[in-house]
Every structure is written in structure tokens, then in C-alpha cells.
Design brief:
By secondary structure, the protein is mainly alpha-helical. Helices cover 73% and strands 0% of the residues.
Length: 73
């Protein structure tokens, strides 16, 4: 029986905040932020390809929802 990993939001934010603060600039490029988010999530749940696919799917879905919300306004 395999269980899907869950993420403690406090740990995610702590890990992400620490990694982003060590970057050289406060003006982060989108790719840099995505890299740090990916690293933080991988540190918390592991590096299995299925987790990566789930994260990428979730990000795509979030962008789709944001576009739909923008179009409605």
C-alpha cells in the first residue's frame, strides 16, 4: 500500500524562505523561483518522478485557473 506524501506547509515555507534569501538578488527571475520551489518540495517529499509530475501538473493547473480568473474579470 503506497501513500501519497503530504507537505507540512510551515516546513515548506521555512525551507523556501531560507533558500530564496540566499539568492543574490531580491529581483528573482521566474525560473530561479521555480527552481527553489522544486528543491524545497523535493527535500520534503523526495525526488520520485511521480512527485515531480504531480507538482508540474499542479503548477499548470494553477496557471490555467489564473488565466480563467483573469478572463472573467
Amino acid at each position: 500500500m503506497s501513500s501519497r506524501p503530504t507537505v507540512n506547509i510551515d516546513e515548506l515555507l521555512k525551507t523556501l524562505r531560507t533558500s530564496v534569501q540566499t539568492l543574490p538578488s531580491n529581483d528573482l527571475e521566474l525560473c530561479d523561483l521555480a527552481n527553489e520551489l522544486g528543491i524545497a518540495l523535493a527535500e520534503l517529499v523526495g525526488t520520485d518522478k511521480s512527485y515531480e509530475a504531480e507538482v508540474l501538473s499542479g503548477i499548470k493547473h494553477g496557471f490555467d485557473l489564473a488565466r480563467k480568473n483573469t478572463e472573467v474579470r
